[in-house]
Amino acid sequence: MKSARTKRFRQLFLSLPQRVQETAKKNYEIWKENPFHPSLEFKEVKPREKIWSVRAGIGWRALGIKKSDEEKIVRFWVGSHSEYDRILGKN
Question: Could you tell me which CATH number the domain at 2-87 has?
Fold first, then answer.
């Protein structure tokens, strides 16, 4: 599966703690080889909006939109799991 990222994703990524950035990079490499690797918990979280989630590290998640016309995820957000819950309306 291919991926792209928004400018906002890049800004959010650079604001993460260094250790989280390193883990997120490792997880991204795993994702490129096997998006459905069990450790990543890659899943659709908002089917209507085609939003997918992946583990960026323990306590950290990333969100992307799956382009239906191609096998591509556009990553638009990364942050803490508590913020993730708020974004998805789980709080």
Answer: 3.30.2310.20
